[in-house]
Each structure stands twice: as structure tokens, then as C-alpha cells.
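User: Fold this; C-alpha cells only.

Assistant: Input:
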Amino acid sequence: MTDEEVRMIAEQYEIDLSKLEGSGPGGEVTLEDLERYIKEHFYPKVLREVKLIGIRKVIAGRLSESYREAVHVTINMEVEMDGLVEMRKKLTEKLGRKPSYTVLMLKCMAKAIRDFIDVNATMDGDKITVYDDININVAIDSPIGLITPVIRNVDEKSLEELLDEYSDLVERTKKGLLKEKDFVGGTFTVTNLGMLEVDSFTPIINPPQVAILGLNRIAEKPVVRNGEIKKARVMTLSLSFDHRAIDGAPAARFLGRVKHYLENPEEVFGDL
């Protein structure tokens, strides 16, 4: 690979080659040096790798034979959003700007993923890789269609950092300014069709990931509380997962944890 090609790759990741210690002649940065740096700084840190064996391998093999690729299963769950709506008002006063629902829900999701880390994974053949870093791909509509750039370490970043990063991603997406670094290293995907008045849909898994969460519109509906009919803001969560890697019960428990944090946002953002 030529110096020009190395430079072009570095540009895609906004890497200053002069600051890298090269192993080539005269300290020149080689392709191997650059790949090592990219892997360390842009790809998720592996928590563990699990080899499919026994029953799980048998199940995966049979399902693969039937579908020849990821076995998509989607489950839906209603969540009451009044708590998050009120939290958004409080955060608007505190921050001096109105945080998007997508970012607020990203923060709640990341906390749930940390609790159920097995959904934060990819699958390649009979190997499932579970990641420690929670890097969430966010589906964004662009002039060339729906694309999914990544926000890294969502659980570790402050709300202000996430708001800035999400705003920057959306702006660069609209202008066609995304680079390769914006797409690598994702471990879970979120897609939001709520702004398009969608009540429920079946998200398609972003391979090689094993799960994707769909967000829908927030609508006022009657709900029953303590035997009485009340009005509440309700949203449906749509989780698609690869049944070769995740069973229905743990997927439902994960979705239930997302529901819990959305309905109890003070556990995520504090009691303002």
C-alpha cells in the first residue's frame, strides 16, 4: 500500500499521522501501524467471546438451515412515557435547550444494555462476540436513504455530550459529510420512526449485530390504573433479535428493563 493510500485512510478517521509512532523505515507509519491504531480507538473493546456448543449450537444450526441467515424475531411492548415527558421539561430548564427524545431514550437504552450485556453483541458463524463498549448505531434519514452512524460509549457520556454528538451526526448526515469512522464499531442499533407517526413496525437487524430496537410515536391513550381509566402518553417499543443468539425470554426481560428506565427516568438522569 502506498503512502498516499495510507494518508487517505487516515483522513477518513481524522488521524494525524505525524502523531503516530511508525514502525517503518525512518519511523514511517505503515498500514499495520494505522490498522492497529484504528482498532484500538474506533472499535469496541471485547468483553468475551462465546463459542456455540451443545444445545445452542444445535439450535443455531437448525435455525440457520431454515432461514439461511439471521432469524429475525420481533417483540413489542407498550411503555408509558409521561415520566420521560416531564423529565424532558425539567432537563430543558436545566440545560437551556430542549433535548431530543431520541437522545434521552438512547441514555435509558444504554443503561438497560449494561444490565443485559448479552444483547450488545455480534454473531459470525457459530461465534457470538459480546462487547464491553456500548456503541449504538442510530438510524438517520439522509439524502441517499437510511444510514446508521455510530455513537460510541453511550453509557459513559453525559447527556450534554450525547446531545452535541447526535446533533453533529445529524448535521453531517444531511450534508453528506460522514466518514468511514462514523460507521465502524457498532454493537447495537436503534431506529426511530416516531416522528413519522408510526405506531409499530418490524426493525431489520443490522448484521452482524444480534438486536435492534425500534422506537415509535408517543400518543395519548386510555390506560387502566388501579381499576380506573386514565389518560397517558404511550409508546410501543419494537425489539427485533436474532433467535440463534438470544432466546425470547431474555430478550423480553431486556425490553422490560428498557421500559422500566423510560418509565422511571430519574434512575437515569437523577431526581431533578
